[in-house]
């Protein structure tokens, strides 16, 4: 066995491999004790804890994929609702412009004294009914997308609560190692209740309903205001 090289400044020890490159028995035992004392080393040495860690990590990945899919669904619903609202406003702007043009043409043809008895004034209900039907259809489409958004938001909130509970258990398992109780399960229900209380989902039901449907309420208000405007424009 080679002797360590000595000089005045320091001492250099050269490790010697035994039987084809394996470390000496004392160093291997020390490394094994150091790895076994660490929680991750204890998990690696225990088949049950290692299997539980792998299962929970797989569940974390699954919850993350589901959360990403729900976020993409929410973005799509919000984008569709925005486009439908833009179409709603554009339709009413175009309809009012056409009614004003028809009113001007009718007043020029019949004269300002006969504006109240013109054919366009007598049939004011036709464009108003068409406008109301189109407004209700667009408002219903917006409401469907809004409901889809809030359903996805509620599911995303539950998924995030489950992910928090699972991450807490995984962290505890990594810290305790072999001392972790294998019968312990993530507290999904408790975490969901805490998230709901923090995010305000348990607020007063009418207030929450108004908050979720304020867009549709505004569209219906615009449609109701545009309904009598046809008669006012054509008969003024």
Description:
The protein is an all-alpha fold and 236 residues long. Helix content is 76%, strand content 2%. It has 9 helices and 2 strands, in the order ββααααααααα. The protein has a two-stranded antiparallel ribbon with strand order 1-2. Helix 3 runs antiparallel to helix 5 (125-176) and helix 5 runs antiparallel to helix 8. The longest helix is centred in the N-terminal third of the chain and has 64 residues, at 47-110. The chain is rod-shaped. Mean pLDDT is 77; it is low at 1-36.
Short description:
This protein has 236 residues and is mostly helical. It has helices spanning 25-37, 39-45, 47-110, 119-122, 125-176, 188-199, 205-212, 214-226, 229-235, and strands at 5-6, 11-12. The longest helix has 64 residues, at 47-110.
């Amino acid at each position: 066995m080679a002797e360590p090289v000595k000089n005045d400044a320091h001492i250099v020890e050269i490790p010697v491999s035994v039987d084809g490159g394996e470390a000496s028995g004392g160093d291997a035992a020390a490394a094994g004790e150091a790895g076994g004392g660490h929680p991750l080393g204890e998990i690696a040495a225990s088949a049950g804890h290692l299997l539980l860690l792998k299962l929970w990590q797989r569940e974390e990945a699954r919850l993350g994929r589901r959360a990403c899919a729900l976020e993409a669904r929410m973005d799509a619903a919000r984008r569709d609702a925005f486009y439908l609202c833009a179409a709603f406003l554009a339709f009413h702007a175009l309809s009012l412009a056409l009614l004003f043009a028809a009113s001007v043409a009718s007043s020029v043809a019949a004269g300002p004294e006969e504006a109240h008895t013109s054919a366009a004034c007598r049939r004011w209900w036709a464009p108003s009914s068409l406008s109301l039907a189109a407004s209700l259809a667009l408002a219903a489409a917006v409401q469907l997308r809004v409901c889809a958004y809030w359903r996805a938001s509620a599911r995303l909130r539950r998924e995030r609560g489950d992910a928090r509970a699972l991450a807490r258990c995984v962290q505890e398992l990594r810290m305790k190692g072999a001392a972790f109780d294998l019968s312990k399960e993530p507290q999904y229900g408790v975490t969901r209740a805490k998230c709901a209380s923090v995010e305000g989902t348990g607020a007063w039901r009418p207030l929450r309903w108004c908050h979720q449907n304020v867009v549709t309420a505004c569209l219906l208000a615009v449609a109701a205001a545009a309904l009598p405007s046809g008669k006012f424009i054509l008969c003024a």
